[in-house]
Amino acid sequence: MGRPPVFAAEVKTRIVLSILTGELTVAQAARxxxxxxxxxNRVGDQAFFGMVGG
Length: 54
Fold this sequence. Notes:
Layout: H1 9-20, H2 26-32, H3 37-52
């Protein structure tokens, strides 16, 4: 059985939209979600690259 996701899809969406709209920086989002910067940054990168198809 696989490991459960760190963030639920709804949380990922909220984080990414907050960062893309300029409401929060990646560091602020990480603090708000009580998580590490690198993991939140990776969520943003995954969303961005998924949107641009690369």
